Amino acid sequence: MKLITRSQLRRVIGKVCSMGLYEMYVLAARADTALMRRRLARSLYARAKLRNRQLKKQYLHNQKKNSGSSADMKRAGQMRSGRLP
């Protein structure tokens, strides 16, 4: 189904004067619903993009932190292995 903007809807309503009030209301409601659906989809997409960016940053930060600590543990293990128990 093709989405209709409000300006397109006004033009259609202006051309079809014999249309009843209920039909006009239905057309307006459909156009509003379509616009809201499109707006909601955009906002959800933008929110998901931001969330993914944050998760990626967090993941990279944790990777950096974990790689540093694992190197320290290896060094500590090498030092311990040289000593007698």
Protein topology:
Elements: H1 6-15, H2 21-82
Number of helices: 2
Q: What best-fitting shape do the alpha-carbon axes yield?
A: rod-shaped
Instruction: Tell me the number of structural domains.
Output: 1
Task: Report the count of strand segments.
Answer: 0
> Which residues form runs of ≥5 with pLDDT under 50?
none
**Radius of gyration using CA atoms only:** 30 Å
Output the structural class.
mainly alpha
Averaging pLDDT over every residue, what do you get? 76
Question: Top keywords for this entry?
Answer:
85 residues, mainly alpha, 2 helices
Describe this structure in words.
It is a single chain. With 85 residues, the chain is mostly helical. The protein has one domain. Helices cover 85% and strands 0% of the residues. It has two helices and no strands.
